[in-house]
Every structure is written in C-alpha cells, then in structure tokens.
Amino acid sequence: MQHPADISIAEYNYNLPERKIAKYPLRERDSSKLLSFVNVNPIELSFRDLPDILPEDSLLLFNETKVIQARMKFQKPSGAKIEVFCLEPVEPVNDFQLAFQLSSPVVWKCMIGNAKRWKSGKLSTMFKVSGKTILLNAEIKKRLTDSWLVELSWNDKKLKFHEIIEQIGLTPLPPYLNREAEESDKERYQTVYAHHDGSVAAPTAGLHFTGDILKKLSNKGIGSAKLTLHVGAGTFKPVSAEKIKGHEMHVERIKVSKSTLEKIRDNISKKIIPVGTTSMRTLESLFWIALKLNGGDQVLAVGQWDPYNLSIPKNFNPEKAINTLLEHLSENNLDSLSAETRLMIAPGYKFRFAKGLITNFHQPKSTLLLLVSALIGEKWKTAYDFALENNFRFLSYGDSCLFMAY
Predict the structure, then answer these.
(1) Nearest Cα to 367, choosing from 188, 227, 231?
(2) For residue 86, which of 64, 102, 67, 101 has the smallest C-alpha distance?
(3) Is the peptide bond before 17 cis (omega within 30 degrees of 0)?
(4) pLDDT at 406 over 70
C-alpha cells in the first residue's frame, strides 16, 4: 500500500467556483442542507433530519473550544494599518485558560498583517471599557520562522486579557471569505456549546447544531461527550507541496476529560461519530498517545507520521488504549488528559475509534479533504460532485455532511 507521504495532492483537487462559497451563515443554524452518505448514494436532506437518521447506538463527540476575537487592528502615526493576529500565549504562561486571566503585560505568538511597515517600536490604540479609556500597546519582541512574539500591555491592571481581546478584537474569519468580520459573526462563528477559549477558527461542523437539535438527539437516546482541540490558523494552510510529505502539520493542543474517556470506553463497540475534523483528530490521537505511554514514552504528543511508522503490539487495541489513558490519569491524580497533536489523517490511515463523521465541505487540496477520503475513500468525489450539482453551500458557513465508514 502506498505510504500517505507519497500521495500527490493533485489527486484531491476539484473545481470550487467562488459563488459556491457561503460568505454568510443562514439565518437559522439548523436550516442548512445535510448531505447524507451512509449507503451507496448521497442523499440531500435538511440538518434538522439528523436526529432521525443517526443510528440509536451512536455517540457524538463535540469539540467545545471557543473562538477568541483574535484579530486586533492598529494604525501607525504614518497612517499604515497593522493587524496583530493572536495565535497562542507564550509568556508568562502558555496555557490558554490561564493566559486569558492575566493582567498586563502578556506575550503571544502572533501573525502580523502588513508586517513590512512595522519593523520596530510600539503600536498603540485606545478604546473604552465601562467608561474608562484604555490604552493598548503592542511591541515586537522576537521574529520567529513564520510568526512573531508580540508583547501586549495596557494601562489598567484590573482588566484581564480576555476583557481586552473581547472588547477590541475582531472575529478571525477564514481568509477565503474575503470580507471583514461583522458584529453578527461574534455569535454565528461560534458553536452554541462553545466553552473553552482558545481557537482562532471555529470547529465549523458544530455551527449547525441548536439547542433543539441537541435535545432531540438526547431524547432519541443518542449519547454525547465533549472534548477540546484549540484550532490554530494552520487549519487554513493549503498543501502547497506536490507530495504530502512536503506538508508540515501544525501543532494543536487537545484536552479530554476522564468522563469523556470513560464514555468512549463504554461505547467502543458502538458508532462513535466525531462532530468535525477537529473532534476526529482529537479522538484518533488518543490511540497514539496511549501507544506511546504503553511503550514508556511520557511525552504526550502525536507526531504527523506516527500512525504510519509506529509498531503496534498484537494485544494493543482501542479498549486497551483508553484504559492506558485512564490509568495514566489515575496514577498522576489528573481529571483530564492534556496533550499536543500533529496527527495527519490521510488515505491509508486505519481508524481506531471513529465509525463516521459529521463535517462541512472542505477546500480543494486540503488536509481536511484527505481526512474525509481516509474515511470514505474515492467516494468523496461522488459526494462533492453531488453537492456542487445540487447547490450545496461550501466551506465554513456552508452546508453539512454525514459520512459513515465503509
């Protein structure tokens, strides 16, 4: 079998007209279309039909990360406009939840828009919080390979960073939407179950869910569990290399509670269906983290090619993996597993837990499309052709799909 690293990305290209990209969400979240591909042929349904078509023995996994208002705009005295896009905290802590509770100053890894016009010096902007004028400063501390370390400071020690970024920041819409963020995006580019601040992109498969849909799923007896993967800007990075081996997956942080691990263990023989590719990557990363722990490696991180290069003992199966993780939590008196993943799921990958996937339509030549193909094979072309011919809306604010593994 061909090693995924040798796959040509040109095989995962398709023509996506600009008019097919949904620039805005529909008025009602659950009024989007649902492409159901669980048998031989794709079927057009409404997302509201999801509770009716999901098997009763399903367990849905939701990514409860919350999108932060990560984009901040500054203007130099010369008039040049600079955008600071916060990616992840660096100093004095690198934990997202702790970082948002800090007062001035903080250092974040950032991307900078119009960086050529900002070589050094401080940028400043003013805004009001509860009637008080706040002065926010930004200063470059260090240039990294593809980003910068930026110190952010402000003149009110009582204000925490989450209050600053919520007040002045803009929703980090995907670049392919080609529009400025609007006030309505603060709500609509966020799932109704978002809980933990830390993402700079929404887990968009979850945008279709409403309280009513969640209630109907529960009433049918369909289980659910929460996990967290903070989505980085790298999720939008197209594969520019000819072969997949030339593409470097970005590091993302995951967190899975003890109760979710127990639910996965108790439903291991049932249909575990992640909601979104981020939930999928988190779920499948658990197997490889456990495999490393089983082998004595205490570094809780999954490498890009681990699934294709690591040897698996004969007695090591998904149930053993979850029990290994639960033992790790017990031994270390932890209530959740925190780790990092760069997992690449591409054709040739063997799924350890997932039996299906709820997702949106993805960009051509993207790692997300590779993930879909890993699950349903060449049928992804049938699904996408059907969607294009039947006026489905594509990408982040677009319509949804239900795929089941074959």
Answers:
(1) 231
(2) 67
(3) no
(4) no
Does residue 297 contact residue 340 with C-beta atoms inside 8 Å? no
CA distance 172 to 92: 24
Q: Rounded to the nearest 10 degrees, how much is the dihedral formed by the CA atoms of 255, 400, 354, 350? A: -110
Q: What is the pTM of this model?
A: 0.94
pLDDT tens per residue, range 261-273: 999 999 999 999 9
pLDDT tens-digit series, residues 116-169: 888 888 999 998 888 889 999 999 999 988 889 999 999 988 899 999 999 999
Cα–Cα distance for residue pair 34/158, rounded to 1 Å? 46
**Paired tokens of 150:** 């930026």
Q: What fold is seen in the domain 4-67+188-404? A: QueA-like (3.40.1780)
Strand order in the sheet with 301-302: 271-274, 58-63, 223-229, 252-257, 336-341, 301-302
Q: Which residue has the tokens 């409403």?
A: 210
- Name the burial class of residue 240, with classes exposed (0-12), middle (13-18) and buried (19+) by CB atoms within 10 angstroms of its CB: exposed
Whether the upstream peptide bond of residue 89 has omega within 30° of 0, thus cis, is: no
Pairing of strands 106-113, 65-67: unpaired
What does the DSSP assignment read for 158-195? TS-HHHHHHHH-B----GGG-S---TTHHHHTS-TT--
Break the chain into its structural domains and give their ranges: 4-67+188-404, 71-169
Number of H helices, E strands in the chain: 11, 18
